[in-house]
Design a protein that fits this description.
Layout lengths: L1 H23 L5 E2 L12 E4 L7 E2 L2 E5 L7 E6 L3 E2 L4 E9 L8 E7 L24 E7 L9 E6 L2 E5 L5 E5 L17 E10 L4 E8 L5 E7 L1 E2 L3 E2 H6 L4 E9 L7 E10 L6 H22 L1
Antiparallel strand pairs: 1-19, 2-5, 3-4, 4-19, 5-18, 6-18, 7-13, 7-19, 8-9, 8-18, 9-10, 10-11, 11-12, 13-14, 14-15, 16-17
Helix pairs in contact: 1-3
Length: 296
């Protein structure tokens, strides 16, 4: 009787230890666990004109209202592991402007938490050299040059052309996917809820969005595996897929106030937590096993 009870406890301990081990190595997603708003300046690296005073009320301004020629970037202090499915959701608000520009980007990068690109249409992502070891999804606001607006994609510190199958190509270019029902970003206080989800099996980044207070919504899936470049995520973030998560934004001669809030995640814990949690889990499990053996 006692022996069966001990064996049952041992099996339960192994399951619990395995769970903690998996959590430590990023096998178990954590919802709203690693990242949240309001932003704590101590947890984020601000690159550009952002300052601690910009962190307030659960949001952060990526570009200063009325400010020209800006390049702002914001990255979480810890790197995360992006080698499996994950999801990041946030709210994006654009203040009314007669000619808003240029936009913002959601970025995963393995350059540095101090990384930042150039002003204007670069959106602090591209430039010389831009944020090189990276993948990004952006929102282009500016139509003053006669081009369309909408969602764009990039990697390697460059915006990329998108083919008819929404495959991200190796060609450098600007191929916005329009937001259905939103024909212009001018003269409107616009708030959008975004969810960016990665599907490891399909190598696809899907952007779901909906207008807060309206009926407009849509979904765009970008394929990040090209015939010529193979696995873009591996090429850009390395085999371990450990990278900084953040946002960039920029203005040029035209400006916009862009604000992020309501950030939630289903991504693994920071990569640096893994070995510590795994070691603790194994030590506890082995120690209890020895203790139960003595009791038997």
């Amino acid at each position: 009787m006692h022996r069966r009870f001990s064996h049952s406890l041992w099996r339960e301990s192994v399951r619990m230890a395995a769970y903690v081990f998996a959590l430590g190595w990023g096998w178990v997603p954590v919802t709203n666990g690693a990242l949240s708003l309001p932003f704590n300046p101590d947890d984020w690296q601000s690159n550009g004109s952002l300052a601690s005073g910009d962190f307030s009320n659960g949001s952060v301004e990526l570009t200063t209202e009325g400010g020209q020629n800006e390049a702002n970037a914001l990255f979480y202090e810890e790197r995360f592991r992006f080698d499996r499915d994950f999801e990041v959701s946030f709210r994006y608000a654009l203040a009314s402007n007669a000619n808003p520009a240029d936009g913002f980007a959601f970025v995963l990068q393995d350059d540095s938490k101090d990384a930042s690109g150039a002003i204007g249409a670069a959106m602090a992502y591209t430039g010389s050299p831009g944020i090189e070891n990276s993948v990004a999804i952006g929102l282009d606001l500016y139509d003053g040059d006669g081009t369309s607006t909408g969602l764009i994609a990039g990697y390697g510190g460059e915006w990329r052309e998108i083919d008819s199958n929404r495959r991200v190509t190796s060609e450098v270019g600007f191929s916005p996917e329009p937001l259905s029902g939103i024909n212009s970003f001018k003269n409107t206080d616009l708030t959008l809820d975004f969810t960016v989800g990665w599907e490891e099996t399909d190598q696809t980044m899907t952007v779901d969005w909906e207008k807060v207070g309206g009926t407009e919504s849509g979904s765009v899936a970008f394929l990040f595996a090209t015939d010529s470049d193979g696995n873009i995520f591996d090429n850009q973030l390395g085999a371990n897929r450990e990278a900084w998560l953040g946002f960039t934004g920029g203005t040029g001669g035209a400006t916009a106030t862009q604000t992020l809030s309501n950030l939630t995640t289903t991504i693994p814990e920071p990569a640096s937590f893994g070995p510590i949690l795994a070691g603790v889990a194994l030590a506890v499990a082995l120690g209890r096993r020895q203790h139960w053996r003595r009791r038997e």
